[in-house]
Amino acid sequence: MIQVLVSQVQALARDALLIELQAPNGQVLPGAAPGAHIDVHLPNGLIRQYSLTNAQGQPSQPSYQIAVARDADSRGGSDWVHDKLRLGSALSISEPRNLFPLNTAAEKKVLFIGAGIGITPIFAMVNSVKGTAVDWTLMACARSASRLAFLEELSGLDDNRVHFHFDLDQGGPLDLHALLSRSQWDALYACGPAGLLDAIESKTQDWPAGSVHMERFKAQAHDGSGNSTFELVLSSSGQSVQVAAEETPLEALERIGVDHPFSCREGLCGTCEVEVIEGLPDHRDNVLDAGDRAAGTRFIPCISRCAGNRLVINL
Ligand code: FES
């Protein structure tokens, strides 16, 4: 855990704040690559994940900058930041973790899509590829220009590469069909609301494996119908627990007194990840990519389940 102080609070766009965090003693913070996020432990007990907008792959950096949008359906996280956070507030944060890494070494023609507050990791990525040999294009989307964070900074970049789409001005959502013609791009990085990412996922089904990278900031809905009980076995002790249909594997572990790390409890942050020794996971998280899922060796117990009757994990 890292202790930081809020060194800057600034309006970025309508209902979006830029928050800068620095170590109290002025020391540098661990560096992070574009796409990285930190867990922010709020004084009201909530833990929230925010992308670093100023992660540029340096070994260390003087501050972390995050952008926080007020969520109309806030469960207490974004409301607290907007209503209670002040300059000088003390916060605990995690070290940066990157579940949305940029790999432009192998990718020549790259499309970035950042929508709403999903522009934050994309902003860091665009800043890292500008001026390089990567042939990149950005589509930055929001309901209106006033709601797009970093509008001014993005407007100052290459006009031929940066495109904007504002739903209210352009009569509706982005036309993904034309934009996502597969022949145009070697890779896609997208972050934004669930509806947009679901549409991107369905329109890129035929893209090569590993070419579509997305980061969700809300878990995909799953109503739990069809959940069944299964046995979860801890390989080190042989201890086992029946995971009931209405509880998560993480909750079952906690019920028998296993103290396992967690943060979001929604399958978003990767903190609770464990290795699978035996059995077939039923992946429901937004952490693992298609390759990880196919390999079946990693498991996110705060949300995923077992596709069979028994799962042995490396605990
Ligand atoms: S606690 Fe965040 S993915 Fe499980």
Question: Could you walk me through the main structural features you see in this protein, from its secondary elements to its overall organization?
Answer:
The protein is of the alpha+beta class and 315 residues long. It has three domains: 2-98, Elongation Factor Tu (Ef-tu), domain 3 (Beta Barrel), CATH 2.40.30; 109-215, 3-Layer(aba) Sandwich (Rossmann fold), CATH 3.40.50.80; 230-313, Roll (Ubiquitin-like (UB roll)), CATH 3.10.20. The strands form five sheets. Strands 1, 2, 4, 5, 7, 8 and 9 form a seven-stranded antiparallel sheet that branches. It is built from seven helices and 21 strands. The chain binds FE2/S2 (inorganic) cluster (FES). The site of FE2/S2 (inorganic) cluster (FES) has 14 residues, from loops.
Give the gist of this structure.
By secondary structure, the chain is an alpha+beta fold. The protein has seven helices and 21 strands.
Keyword list:
315 residues, alpha+beta, Elongation Factor Tu (Ef-tu), domain 3, Rossmann fold, Ubiquitin-like (UB roll), 3 domains, seven-stranded antiparallel beta sheet, five-stranded parallel beta sheet, 7 helices, binds FE2/S2 (inorganic) cluster
Helical proportion, percent range: 10-25%
- Tell me the number of helical segments per DSSP (H or I, 4 or more residues long): 7
State the fourth-level CATH superfamily of the largest domain.
Nucleotide-binding domain of ferredoxin-NADP reductase (FNR) module
CATH topology of the largest domain: Rossmann fold
Uncertain segments of ≥5 residues (pLDDT<50)? Answer: none
Number of domain modules: 3
From the helix content, strand content and strand pairing, which structural class follows?
alpha+beta
How far is it from the N-terminal to the C-terminal residue, by CA?
Answer: 22 Å
* Sheet with most strands: 7 strands, antiparallel
**Number of DSSP-assigned strands:** 21
Multimerization state = single chain
Strand content: 25-35%
